[in-house]
Amino acid sequence: MGDPSCSHFDVAILGGGSAGYAAARTTAAGGLKTAVIDGGQELGGLCILRGCMPTKALLYASEVKHLAERGSTWGLQIPKVSFDFQQVMARKAAMVEEFASYRREQLQDGRFELIRSKAQFQDPHTLRLEDGSLVTADSILLATGSKVAPLPLASLESIMPWTSDDVLNLKRLPASIIVLGAGPVALELAQFFLRFGVKTTLIQRSNQLLSGFDPDMASPLQEALEAEGMHVHTATRLLGGSKKGGMDCIRFEHDGKTREVYAEAVLHGLGRVPNLEGLNLTKAGLELQSGRLSLNERMQTNCAHIYAAGDCAGPHEIVHVAIQQGETAAHNILNPERPRSMDYRVLVSVVFTDPQVAMAGLSETEAKRIGRRVICADYPFNDHGKSMLMDTMHGKVKLIADAVSGEILGGACTGPMAGELIHEVVVAIHQRMTAQELALVPHYHPTLAEIWTYPAEDIAEAIG
């Protein structure tokens, strides 16, 4: 047999999700011969197929149902609210297909070559495809996404916990469910189940929900979930899982005592890890640190011509960051003489529960950990006109500013439409505004957004 066929490109990109597509369109527009190699069963990437879009479609359905059930709060007489779960899931599927079909068109419109295959490194510049053919490239970008993290205990395998992927394909709702973890995905799906009538128990290892947020911003969410009927256990240690009497059983330690909870199903919501398996990274000379690629701020690995972007790169698995990373890597491939760096100063996190929880820039905890002298101020939604009208009064907003200059370093919001409201802080951080300057920005009344002026005024007054 002769040598396997070999194709050469200026740039080869592994993965056609948000990061990979953003990079491909950029390098192709810059005149580089580009290939996108994607061996997934479906094209589109995690966000469209199994992440952001389908989960938000389900969450919004649960929110509309919840509001209808509370119609009497505003004097509305709404008959008993019912639902058709098949129709709920069908609308979700239709929305996903609409987004996915557009992404498929973008990937197949001829700007770059799309190769439907898995690939692994043969050497730092060569990739071997499933059919044995080779692809060589001057530059390579890894945008292979993430996968569900391994189960923390082997005994949990006996009950085969669901993942978020399984939830998105459900044909019927369970009567009860135990959710392991209290990160964004776990919390969002837990509230979805709760609002569709499923008895829901949440088990979290750390002392609070959303361990990356300040405790005072996470606690109102726990209060709201418990008020709706969710059983929440924090500060726990998982001991094991088993089948008992046809039910799934989870054993855990809490307050020094061993407890058991039972449910029809268990959801594994303990996070995701970079999807790097099967790439043969050692053949490329790539180094990993704690299972993650070693990257600089230019999105380069320890091999200067190999880049990474998106969930497989970290440190933040968020779509808009993935796109920025893909575009940054692509710019640096195109313009090595004037490289760009990623700016994580304006990092945004949003949890689409009700109340929503959002954060931009530094948290108060992180600011103090790194030694920044900060001044903080907050204001509650239960004393704010628009949120009182809406009867959405859990939570507050908080600003974190430099104690001397007043420059806004971070902000957080737990409350109605927090995912929208946080962008006011994003703009302020991006433009390096001070609290004094934010306080002077006119805000329409009555709006939710005007709540930011109150902590801004407090900080401005304190600094003088």
Provide keyphrases for this structure.
five-stranded antiparallel β-sheet, FAD/NAD(P)-binding domain, alpha/beta, 26% strand, 32% helix, seven-stranded mixed β-sheet, Enolase-like, domain 1, 3 domains, 464 residues
In short:
The chain has helices at residues 18-29, 46-50, 52-69, 85-107, 164-167, 184-195, 215-228, 281-284, 319-334, 364-369, 385-390, 418-430, 435-440, 453-463; strands at 6-14, 34-37, 113-115, 119-123, 126-129, 134-142, 146-148, 176-180, 199-203, 231-233, 236-244, 247-254, 257-263, 265-268, 272-274, 288-289, 292-293, 306-308, 348-351, 356-361, 374-380, 396-402, 408-415.
Question: How would you describe the overall organization of this protein?
Answer:
The structure is a single chain. The protein has helices at residues 18-29, 46-50, 52-69, 85-107, 164-167, 184-195, 215-228, 281-284, 319-334, 364-369, 385-390, 418-430, 435-440, 453-463, and strands at 6-14, 34-37, 113-115, 119-123, 126-129, 134-142, 146-148, 176-180, 199-203, 231-233, 236-244, 247-254, 257-263, 265-268, 272-274, 288-289, 292-293, 306-308, 348-351, 356-361, 374-380, 396-402, 408-415. The chain is of the alpha/beta class. The protein has 3 domains: 6-148 and 273-342, FAD/NAD(P)-binding domain, CATH 3.50.50.60; 154-270, FAD/NAD(P)-binding domain (3-Layer(bba) Sandwich); 345-463, Enolase-like, domain 1. Strands 1, 2, 3, 4, 5, 6 and 18 form a 7-stranded mixed sheet that branches. Strands 19-20-23-22-21 form a 5-stranded antiparallel sheet, with helices on both faces. A hairpin with a 4-residue loop joins strand 5 and strand 6. Helix 1 (18-29) packs parallel to helix 9, helix 3 runs antiparallel to helix 4 (85-107) and helix 3 (52-69) packs parallel to helix 6 (184-195). The longest helix has 23 residues, at 85-107. The mean pLDDT is 95.
